[in-house]
Design goal:
Residues 128-151 are annotated as: Disordered. It is built from 2 helices and 8 strands. The protein has helices at residues 49-57, 109-129, and strands at residues 8-14, 23-29, 37-44, 61-62, 71-76, 85-91, 94-100, 140-144. An 8-stranded antiparallel sheet has the order 4-5-6-7-3-2-1-8. The longest helix has 21 residues, at 109-129. The protein has one domain. A hairpin with an 8-residue loop joins strand 1 and strand 2 (23-29).
Length: 151
């Protein structure tokens, strides 16, 4: 999806903050050169279905209902030299975004962010915006690249 081998990964999600809506982010960076950000996954308590509907009316593709009661969209930026693609999913006041800031030329980067959203949204946005139906994993999730973690 990113074309980056052995990337630097940093992030933290706290699904108990923001009155249970959760917040946090995880970013993937190139390991060499300027260490540019390649991918950002962001969970915020500021979701708006009206904004999602507006983006869809402006040409973004709608996401399927990945979690019950959710509404989302995805698109590839036409004017981007870096093959930027974004997916946004809102449920209640929780908003989850997957932002591919440097995509791989020749790939369907919009499909990549939509697929990533389908993988992560059921864990992050459901836990962040609705009471769990049963026991779940730890409410705090950290990401750290194995190559950059201290032993």
């Amino acid at each position: 999806m990113t074309g980056v081998r052995n990337p630097l990964v940093r992030g933290h999600f706290d699904l108990t903050s923001a009155s249970g809506l959760g917040d946090g982010s995880c970013a993937v960076y190139q390991r060499t050169g300027e260490r540019l950000k390649v991918l950002l996954i962001d969970l915020t308590p500021g979701g708006s279905t009206e904004e999602v509907k507006e983006e869809i009316s402006n040409g973004a593709s709608p996401l399927p209902e990945i979690v019950p009661g959710s509404l989302g969209h995805y698109f590839k930026s036409d004017g981007s030299e870096h093959n930027v693609a974004v997916a946004v999913l809102v449920r209640g006041k929780a908003e989850l975004s997957v932002q591919l800031e440097i995509g791989v030329e020749g790939r369907d980067n919009a499909a990549d962010v939509a697929a990533m959203m389908k993988l992560i949204a059921p864990k992050l946005i459901t836990d962040a915006s609705a009471p769990a139906a049963g026991p779940s994993a730890s409410p705090s999730t950290e990401a750290d690249s194995p190559s950059s973690a201290k032993d």
